[in-house]
Amino acid sequence: MSVDHAQAEISVVDDGIGFDPAQPLPDEEQHFGSRIMRERAAEIGAQLNVQSAPGQGTRVTVRVPRSS
Fold this sequence. Notes:
It contains one helix and four strands. It is α+β, with helices and mostly antiparallel strands and 68 residues long.
């Protein structure tokens, strides 16, 4: 986690099997995790970034603007 005058940033990282974020997940119709995370981030004016690659794990980062 990092915080500066403009934003707070939180990252969650794992060293799992990873995935290709450009490809839909096989069970995406039953699981709405990434879509809901993006919707909730947008509701508070935050940005959500998902970085992953097969065999490389995953990093999910949320950047939330700080109000003055």
